[in-house]
Amino acid sequence: MLTYISNIQHTNSGNFFLIAGPCAIEGEEMAFEIAEHIQKVCHRLEIPFIFKGSYRKANRSRLDSFTGIGDEKALAILQKVGNSLSIPTVTDIHTAEEAALAAKYVNVLQIPAFLCRQTDLLIAAAKTGKTVNIKKGQFLSAEAMQFAVQKVKESGNNNVLLTDRGTMFGYQDIVVDMRGIPTMQNFAPVVIDVTHSLQQPNQSSGVTGGKPQLIETIAKAGIAVGADGIFLETHPNPSKAKSDGANMLQLVQLENLLEKLVRIRKAI
Fold first, then answer.
1. CB 91 within 8 A of CB 110
2. In whole angstroms, what is the distance from residue 144 CA to residue 15 CA?
3. Cα–Cα separations (whole angstroms), residue 264 to 16, 221, 225, 226, 259
């Protein structure tokens, strides 16, 4: 997988790569609709694309929140999308036991931000041989992420990505420090998450909201400082998404955003 990313970074276009898809797999038709649309746009703009979808949402604010359609059913959809469209896929894992299961279906295993220091989870992901994308915890500095990378590499797997999704100061806001991108690039290729970095928890309702109108701002800044990739969640109708709809970019807005990012990338 890192060979794939290395090839991306040395193409004539010199483009960033894109990790994108819905927050959660809601069904096969929806997954294909999103993946096919993104693939078409990325093909035109020469942006290598990795399809993202969580097969299960383990970290939810409320007990009645949507968590998934069934683990193996959702994983099979991810595998079908990847095979049918010839694109790599990525999903989250939450426990060491999940690593081997998910690795049968996807190309990249993603470690959620809250779990980025969990040694057993990192080792289990590493031992699958899949690329491991570690999301930076909101509670950690960029410098501290070198230790998460070391755990994976010292377990025999050099295929590591880091994804920055901001740092939380206080209780209500997340701030993205762009200095963290070049810092973490000393350890691994760096992706910037431009949707979760805008999350704001609502303490009264327990529901996480977002500021999708700022997605473009964060994405532009990330590309301008040299991020290797962009991570974002998108949906045809975010208001009806079963998970994290308030954070997601509307699917029809993706092409315009990516066109702007490609121009910035070429300029730098």
1. yes
2. 28
3. 11, 9, 10, 10, 9
Kindly provide the residue ranges of all beta strands, DSSP E only, lying in 205-255, ordered along the sequence. Answer: 208-209, 229-235, 249-250
Judge whether 75 and 121 are in contact, CB under 8 Å: no
Segment 128-162, tens digit of pLDDT: 999 999 999 999 999 999 999 999 999 999 999 99
Query: pLDDT tens across 52-101, in order?
Result: 999 987 664 554 455 668 899 999 999 999 999 999 999 999 999 999 99
Where are the strands (E) in the chain, listed by range? 17-21, 49-52, 89-92, 108-111, 131-135, 160-164, 167-169, 173-175, 190-193, 200-201, 208-209, 229-235, 249-250
Report residue 87 as tokens: 């694109």
Which residues are within 8 A (CB) of 123 and not within 5 positions of it... i.e. 6 or more apart?
96, 151, 152, 155
Q: Which helix (H) or strand (E) holds 43?
A: helix 28-45
Q: What is the pLDDT of residues 16-48, one digit of tens each?
A: 999 999 999 999 999 999 999 999 999 999 999
**CATH fold for the domain made of 2-252:** TIM Barrel (3.20.20)
